[in-house]
Amino acid sequence: MMVRRKAFGEFLGTGLLVVTVIGSGKMATNISNDVGVQLAINAVATVLSLSILIFIFAGISGSHFNPVVTLSEFLRHKISMTTAGAYLLAQFLGGFLGAVLANLMFALPAISPSHHIRSGGHLWLGEVVATAGLLFLLMVMEIEGKVSAAPLVISGWIGAAYFFTSSTSFANPAVTFARSWSDSFSGIALRSVPAFVLAQLMGGCIGVALASLLKKGAQPHG
After folding, report:
1. Is residue 55 part of a domain?
2. Which of 52, 164, 178, 198 has the most crowded Cβ, counting Cβ within 10 A?
3. Cα distance between residue 140 and residue 73, in whole Å
4. How confident is residue 218, by pLDDT bands cut at 50, 70 and 90?
5. 127 has a pLDDT exceeding 90
6. What pLDDT, on a 0 to 100 scale, did the predictor assign at position 219?
7. Range(s) of the domain holding residue 66
8. Mean pLDDT throughout 45-55?
């Protein structure tokens, strides 16, 4: 029952995150033709939603909402294989249904595959940087005993990375996959997803490795 409750938290959290990303992207294109304004609207909505979701679900599931975070926790023996598997399923399913809900809210077909090709080494590098930074910050907060700051720190990083990375900071395989089912401002063509996910996994490994260097000799907290 405990695993189910945690997985349900991941399902809801990831789903609501995707609703925010896709919904705000669609709203942005409805009210402005300026791409900069559209990106700003999308980023602000994501930052606000992500900070709230992390705060609300932290005590339920740990607020992963991201397969890279879940895999990191599993490989570092923080969660069991059963919990990791449940989280991954919940994240992808929640993300997909979040995309469906966002599509329906804006009178799009429930399943509306994106035609937005996002490909190229510069975009993949952006995803490596965005995801490496995310995992690095998560681990450093853990090392320093500052996990309570996660709602501010993580949402702040993602919001900033919307503007300083070439890829606009997807940094999440489940959300990336979900965004492939909405042919909107926030979408990504399904054929572009595998390379993005690979870059995110690479970034996650780099982030963990960098944080591990800081962990050596650090005093334990909590």
Report:
1. yes
2. 178
3. 14
4. low
5. yes
6. 60
7. 2-215
8. 98
Domain count, the chain: 1
56, 17 contact by CB (below 8 A): no
pLDDT value, residue 214:
87
Q: What is the pLDDT of residues 88-110, one digit of tens each?
A: 999 999 999 999 999 999 999 99
Q: Is residue 168 part of a domain?
A: yes
Q: How many residues does the chain have?
A: 222
Query: At 179, phi and psi to the nearest 5?
Result: -70, -15
Distance CA 204, CA 22 (A): 24
| Residue 37 is assigned to a structural domain of this protein | yes
Give the pLDDT band (50/70/90) at residue 221. low
Instruction: Say which residue the tokens 């695993």 belong to.
Output: 3
**Domain holding 195: CATH number?**
1.20.1080.10
